[in-house]
Amino acid sequence: MDSTNIATALSLRRPLNGSGVRRISGGDHEQKQRHRLKIGTWNVKSLKQHGKLQNVIKEMRRLEIRVLGISDTKWPGNDRYKTTEGQVLYYSGKNGSTEPYGVAVLLTKETARAVRGFIPHSN
């Protein structure tokens, strides 16, 4: 066996010898951006407050998130809610209860078109 010391780079972007790393473009950047799917989660601590859902949608748009998992919605029952702008919120909570739970998935208008069904499992 060869006992030569093999030095590894401290960063994947820069080898030890100081030379630059050459990147090969994977195609049109705008094309990639259009097909990229950003998914996020947020504990909103209630969607019952006036304007809270609109604020969530605004932040979702700002961060370019297309699928947002939401916890602690505090909405009773389970259903689908379509906003005036076309986003779709699938939610599930406990029926007739004010317990501090409930979950939801908020989808952009474009992403919601791909959904074929919604089966709530629990709150």
From TrEMBL:
Domain of life: Eukaryota
Gene3D superfamilies found in the cross-reference section: Endonuclease/exonuclease/phosphatase (3.60.10.10)
Listed InterPro entries: Endo/exonu/phosph_ase_sf
SUPFAM superfamilies in the record: DNase I-like (SSF56219)
Protein name: Craniofacial development protein 2-like
Organism annotation: Pieris macdunnoughi
